[in-house]
Write a structure and sequence with these properties.
alpha/beta; Rossmann fold; 6-stranded mixed β-sheet; 14 strands; about 40% helix
């Protein structure tokens, strides 16, 4: 045992002498380098280890209500997540959990995301609002972003897209292309966002054909292809020859295709799911907002708190109507282009009076323009919607 220790001690002594000699040589070399680089004399001879060490990537997590392959809402969010990765490279590390229900289980998912070290978490559907508020309160060092919500906290802010702008443009085309004057909408959940889209679709159609009638069937889910199919068929059986949806799958468009009717894609470009039926897709591009949010987080400029809400649309490049069918007349295409330009520069407003509710009462006077507070609380149908609002009188 002693013999082995002696050898080890000898080796250590030899190693120490070697290191001392190497250090001396490096010091001499360093002095020569400093003398040769006199202009940089004010800079330290060597940077601290912490300065040269590679920064840890920002861990970002996304919670999706549907599958990434839904072809609509969740697909659009995941495309934006990929855009974030492309924009920031190894500065970020993203992950996602799909098919997270709008129920108590969502809270568990958000807590797990925070526990895994994610410092920026996106919840991408309205029903996550309360679970996110709970988890945010317990995770003050994590930044939370909630899509389509209206509540904020010290470390939670909300964001949305002006989907009603896409719905209005789709309505303009629908009003022109309908032969029966009856349109149909498959609605998901009767919240202001969806009701606002149905109304905007109706207003767009009425701008072309004032006698347009819009029927609605609710499925009370965001993603349920069988129910969406059944609802679409019910609308077609009721005389609707052009359909729109506020649901997440391509079932409505596919049903229209099978019946020889027209329909629109929603949230993402759905052309491929029903090329003969497809008149256009009202799409959301979440990438501009996600990239801006991540950049703020990386730069230390991210901020939340009461009233911290972003609502982006055509103006910010977040909403568009794409892949308009060749069957749509040139003058209607030109009208849509004009609307886009007006929404972008602020010269056109969709919700501008006179607008009358389903009950015949005026909701906006002539020349009066709805502000965001008004739009956020829409809980009525406009005149021309021939359906009863769930929970309404």
């Amino acid at each position: 045992m002693m013999k082995k220790m002696s050898k080890r001690a000898l080796l250590l002594n030899l190693s120490s002498l070697t290191l001392i000699a190497a250090a001396a040589a490096l010091t001499a070399c360093g002095k020569k380098t400093e003398e040769a680089a006199a202009p940089a004399a004010s800079a330290p001879a060597s940077a601290p280890a912490s300065a040269v060490a590679k920064a840890e990537p920002l861990k970002i997590a996304f919670a999706y209500v549907g599958p990434v392959g839904d072809g609509g809402w969740t697909f659009a969010h995941d495309n934006a997540r990929k855009a974030v990765e492309k924009e920031f490279g190894d500065k970020v590390q993203t992950s996602f959990v799909e098919k997270v229900p709008e129920a108590a289980d969502a809270e568990r998912v958000f807590r797990d995301m925070a526990g895994q070290g994610n410092k920026l978490i996106f919840g991408t559907t309205f029903g996550y609002m309360e679970p996110m508020l709970k988890v945010a309160a317990d995770s003050p060092d994590v930044k939370f972003e909630h899509a389509t919500g209206y509540k904020q906290a010290a470390n939670l802010r909300s964001y949305d897209s002006r989907t009603y702008e896409g719905a209005y443009m789709a309505g303009v085309i629908a009003g022109k292309m309908s032969k029966t004057g009856t349109l149909g909408v498959v609605g998901s959940i009767p919240i202001p966002e969806v009701i606002r889209n149905i109304n905007s679709f109706t207003l767009g159609a009425q701008s072309v054909n004032p006698k347009t009638v819009v029927k609605v069937v609710w499925v009370n889910k965001w993603f349920d292809p069988p129910q969406e199919t059944e609802a679409a068929q019910t609308l077609i059986n009721g005389g609707a020859d052009v359909l729109m949806q506020n649901t997440d799958s391509s079932a409505v468009l596919q049903t229209a295709e099978k019946n020889g009717k027209y329909a629109f894609g929603w949230d993402s470009d759905m052309t491929a799911y029903g090329p003969k039926a497809h008149l256009g897709s009202a799409v959301i591009n979440w990438a501009p907002y996600y990239i801006a949010s991540v950049r703020e987080a990386l730069d230390g400029k991210w901020a939340a708190g009461p009233g911290k809400h972003s609502w982006w649309g055509v103006k910010e490049g977040s909403i568009d109507l794409v892949s308009i069918a060749e069957a749509v007349p040139a003058e209607t295409r030109a009208q849509v282009d004009k609307i886009k330009a007006g929404l972008k520069d602020g010269s056109f407003a969709i919700w501008k009076g006179p607008i009358v509710g389903q009950d015949g009462k005026e909701v906006l006077k002539k020349g009066e323009q709805a502000d965001d507070k008004f739009l956020s609380g829409v809980n009525f149908y406009v005149k021309g919607v021939d359906s009863k609002l769930p929970g309404g009188k």
